[in-house]
């Protein structure tokens, strides 16, 4: 058996063990489905907290077991060192599970001046670990199988483990932090190199007291973006609005700060999401 195959199976086995531990705890937990208007993951405008897009960070909230979310987006980017491109449909499906847990699937297509093709797909499991009066804590494991085009896919696959925490500064201002550890591989045209990275992310959000509207600003980065390329940091800001309690639309502007994270100078993105259940 090839060493790369053994490595991939080892990484997948490790992730499955971690997810099994989370699942065991989740199934032993009583899921309180009562409506709590002080809980950002429930209540009238909860969809603004439940949805993952358009930020790079994932939501700290988990769906109830009778809920699901479908998210779609279109991104125009100014590619480095020159050129332009589009990423779409940025399809993400989230499904609630018993015991304060959820599953996530993500896929997208990349079209740029020099090349086009499918990007990697990811399969994730998230579980709420605990909470205090003003904070929520979640853990997340994400598996990236070998998939995608030679220009934009993941040649050998990878895994990511995230810790996510949120803190309610005021009833309308919240701070979210996500810290990840990942092992990923580059596309085959980039020699399919594997690299390890620590991935910090901070999001500051403000929600209007009357309108179903939220503004946010985010800074995120990676300590490595590939073999020998070093780290990189980007920033974005945007607006989210609920047309109904179950239908969200959003607009985001992102910009490169340092390094080669994402391979762009800046981007503009629009999208929407539907909440079922």
Write the layout of secondary structure elements.
Layout: H1 3-27, H2 47-50, E1 68-79, E2 84-97, E3 101-112, E4 116-118, E5 122-131, E6 135-144, E7 158-168, E8 173-185, E9 194-207, E10 213-222, E11 232-244, E12 247-258, E13 264-276
Antiparallel strand pairs: 1-2, 1-13, 2-3, 3-4, 3-5, 5-6, 6-7, 7-8, 8-9, 9-10, 10-11, 11-12, 12-13
Compact description:
With 277 residues, the chain is mostly beta strands. The chain is built from two helices and 13 strands, in the order ααβββββββββββββ. The chain has a single domain, classed as Beta Barrel (Porin).
Protein model, in words:
The protein is mainly beta. The chain has helices at about 5-25, 45-50, and strands at about 70-80, 85-95, 100-110, 115-120, 120-130, 135-145, 160-170, 175-185, 195-205, 215-220, 230-245, 245-260, 265-275. The chain has one domain: Porin. The chain is built from two helices and 13 strands, in the order ααβββββββββββββ. A hairpin with a 3-residue loop joins strand 5 (about 120-130) and strand 6. Residues about 1-5 and about 20-35 have low confidence and may be disordered.
């Amino acid at each position: 058996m090839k060493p790369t195959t053994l490595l991939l199976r080892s990484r997948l086995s490790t992730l499955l063990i971690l997810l099994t531990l989370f699942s065991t705890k989740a199934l032993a937990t009583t899921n309180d489905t009562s409506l709590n208007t002080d809980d950002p993951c429930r209540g009238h405008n909860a969809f603004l907290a439940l949805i993952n897009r358009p930020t790079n960070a994932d939501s700290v909230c988990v769906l109830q077991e009778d809920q699901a979310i479908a998210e779609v987006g279109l991104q125009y980017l100014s590619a480095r060192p020159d050129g332009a491109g589009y990423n779409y449909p940025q399809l993400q499906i989230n499904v609630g599970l018993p015991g304060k847990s959820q599953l996530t699937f993500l896929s997208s297509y990349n079209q740029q001046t020099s090349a086009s093709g499918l990007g990697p797909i990811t399969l994730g499991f998230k579980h709420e670990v605990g909470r205090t009066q003003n904070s929520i804590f979640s853990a997340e494991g994400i598996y990236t199988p070998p998939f995608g085009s030679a220009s934009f896919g993941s040649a050998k696959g990878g895994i990511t483990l995230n810790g996510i925490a949120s803190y309610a500064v005021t009833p309308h201002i919240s701070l979210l932090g996500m810290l990840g550890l990942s092992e990923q591989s580059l596309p085959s045209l980039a020699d399919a190199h594997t690299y390890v990275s620590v991935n910090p992310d901070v999001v500051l959000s403000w929600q209007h007291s009357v309108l179903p509207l939220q503004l946010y600003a985010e800074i995120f980065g990676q300590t490595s973006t590939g073999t020998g390329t070093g780290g990189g940091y980007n920033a974005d800001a945007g607006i989210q609005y609920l047309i109904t309690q179950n239908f969200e639309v959003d607009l985001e502007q992102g910009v490169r700060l340092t390094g080669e994270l994402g391979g762009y100078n800046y981007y503009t993105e629009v999208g929407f999401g539907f909440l079922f259940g």
